[in-house]
Amino acid sequence: MAGAGARELSPDWRRVGALFDEALELDAAGRERLLARAAETDPGLAVEVRELLRAHDTSAGFLEHPAWAVAPELLAESADAALTGTRVGPYDIREEVGRGGMGVVYAARDERLGRTVALKVLPRAVSRDAHARERLAREARAAAALSHPSIATVYALEEIDGEMYLASELVRGVTLRSTLAGGRLSGSRVLEILLQLAEALDTAHRHGIVHRDLKPDNVIVTADGRVKIVDFGIARTLTPPEGVHPLTRTGMAIGTPGYMAPEQLRGDAVDARADVFAFGVIAYELATGEHPFGGSDAASLVERLVAERPPMSQALQPPALDAIVRRCLRGDREGRYTSGAELLDALRGVTDGAPGTGSRPLFVRSAWWWKFHQVAVAAITITNTVTIGFRKAPLGVSGKWVFLVILVLATITTTLRLHMWFVSQVHPASLLALRGRVLRWVVICEGLLILAFLGTGIALAFAGPHDALAAQFIVTALFMLLSLLVIEPATTRASLS
Amino acid sequence: MSEPWADRPDLEALMPAVYAELRRLAAHYLRGERPGQTLQPTALVHEAYLKLQKDRPERWQNRAHFCAIAAHAMRQILIERARARDALKRGGGAPRVTFDEGLPAQAGERSFDMVALDAALERLAALDAGQARIVELRFFGGLSIEETAEAMGISPATVKRHWALARAWLARELES
Fold first, then answer.
1. Who has greater pLDDT, B57 or A391?
2. Which of A47, A207, A242, B37 is the most exposed place for a label (fewest CB within 10 A)?
3. ipTM of the complex
């Protein structure tokens, strides 16, 4: 910088000013003549003024707008701290404790109740928009009903002097974002955090409340290791503006990985499964230190999200956790856990070391073959049973008993198979557990049915001119045997793993 | 810094009130809207004046007098923040969480170092305290040529002349 030197070398400032003023009035040629004349008596003065004239000519606009218009971010920063030490309604504002997309959060003393709260100054976009205000009031009321050690309790939504404030439980700690920045966590710590998050989601989802903006910035880790989710159910409403594609927002901007489920990115209505997705992203991040879609630009991010395959480049340990996170991150929400309750259940399976639902193979692709198989076997069983009912005469007296036994067995196994099919249609998540319970009975019943059909077929073959019928039963028995030993395991492997 | 109350030591007591009011107003303005759209050049200072005038009318000689103090307060606020921000950048501390909405610098504006400007302004004050004050009133106070003339008790033509020279000098100082 020419700073100190300029002062020492500069000729008398008044003379500089006088010559500069005079030169400004002239055109280029006039200036040259003036400066040449001045240079004869004081070369230093002429050089200085020539420099200043050049600076003048090349700096149009310089300092012409007030400082706060040129550098609004400076004022914004000072504005944030502006409430510290002031009083807003019943709140004595003590200090700034955080800031984010929704504005600044202060620690404030609620003088009415004598408690310290987190006071968030809501954006004008919210306080001015009657519709947003109403929605926020509704959401805040619902959120205030939530009580869980891992959820920061909402106390009140206040309107003071035309500004909106949200008072909630003051949580001291660092965000999970900062925790992540500090490096990878131990496996047990990761599970500990995830369990707490899942418990909180479970409680909220039971109350019908979806966070909708779960991300590490909305999770605070306290000094004693507890995690607390903030802004439950209200975060999304608080994040203006409407009509802007989510991808253009910071947090989802290019290079910054997101936490929104594909359906949320598309603008569809979201439910608990969106939280499950966000949970999956956080879980992957905690376990690997990387974002599952790390480094993606917006376009390929959407592509990967909308694809059914969870975009996980690393396998997590233990495998049971990997399976859970994979399922949380599925692009189609039908494939995810339906709520915090299911998620929690699966996670507990991991922590107990038991093969809980979470460690089971998951119901995923090409379930069609499995479903078709169930229905087909049920249909064949019924058809043959009915046939025996009508054509039992050649079997003599024993025919009635054979028919009754077959009828009972067929009813049991058909009911079980159709029940599995039905569950796979309406509630695929619980199918595996159901299959584990009923498969043994299906095998027993169908084993006996195979023997019965085989016996019937053989008996008919010897009893006279019933070759066609005999062949039908024997073929059916062989088919069912094949189904039980080969087709069933194969379609199950293809569909349920 | 050239203190606008150098000739009136009793005025120094007014500084904290102006400072606090400006910050409060700045917060008020910036919470909802983008500054470029809503901050009229002198809106902050004028509004602060109206508010403080109402509270304690006897303290202020006139609006010009107030503006001088407000401009100085604004300079302090902005430089303080710019220093804090620079320190944070140099220190390489935890990345600062800022507003999601972002407050982009206005297009077409020359970007420059606010702290360097402050230092250059100090040097200018050593050459010519009056010119430094003009810059403070114009740039940090957002006053027009006429308002600056009124605040300083000199003619608008003189303000204009001094302003041109001070601007050229500062621009050259900041080039290097």
1. A391
2. B37
3. 0.73
CA dihedral A403, A409, A410, A413 (to 10 degrees): 180
Closest chain B residue to A80 measured between Cα atoms? Answer: B27
> Does residue A84 contact residue A68 with C-beta atoms inside 8 Å?
no
Q: Is residue B101 part of a domain?
A: no
The average pLDDT across A109-116 equals 91
Question: Do the Cβ atoms of A204 and A210 come closer than 8 Å?
Answer: yes
A178 and A201 in contact (C-beta within 8 Å)?
A: no
> H/E element holding A93?
strand A91-100
Nearest-neighbour CA in chain B from A51: distance (Å) = 8
Residues A50 and A35 sit within 8 Å (Cβ to Cβ)? yes
The CA distance from B44 to the nearest CA of chain A, in Å, is 10
Q: Which domain holds residue B117?
A: 11-91+110-175
Q: What are phi and psi of A172, to 5 degrees?
A: -95, 135
**Alpha-carbon gap, residue A115 to A127, rounded angstroms:** 25
Q: Rounded to whole angstroms, how far apart are CA atoms A26 and A40?
A: 19
Tell me the pTM.
Answer: 0.47
Residues 109-168 of B with CB under 8 A from A: 109-110, 114, 116, 119-120, 123, 126-128, 135, 138-142, 161-162, 164-165, 167-168
Q: Please give the tally of structural domains in chain B.
A: 1
Tens-digit pLDDT profile for residues B107-144: 333 346 788 899 999 999 988 889 999 999 998 888 88
Residues contacting B39, CB < 8 A, separation 6+: A68, A69, A72, B29
Per-residue confidence band for B76, with pLDDT thresholds at 50, 70 and 90: confident
Is B56 among the domain residues?
yes
Q: How confident is the model at residue B59 (pLDDT cuts 50, 70, 90)?
A: low
Which candidate from B28, B35, B139 shows the least CB-CB separation from A72? B35
pLDDT of residue A490: 81
| B47 assigned to some structural domain | yes
Token reading at A492? 């199950």
Task: Check: CB of residue A126 under 8 Å from CB of residue A133.
Answer: yes
Cα distances from A286 to residues A202, A281, A356, A472, B35, in angstroms, run 20, 9, 22, 59, 38
Please tell me which residue of chain B has the smallest CA distance to A22. Answer: B161
Residue B124: inside a domain, yes or no? yes
- Residue B143 pLDDT: 83
Q: Which of A292-306, A314-328, B149-163 has the highest mean pLDDT?
A: B149-163
Interface contacts (A, B; CB < 8 Å): 184
Mutate to test the interface with B, among A50, A70, A244 (most CBs of B within 10 A): A70
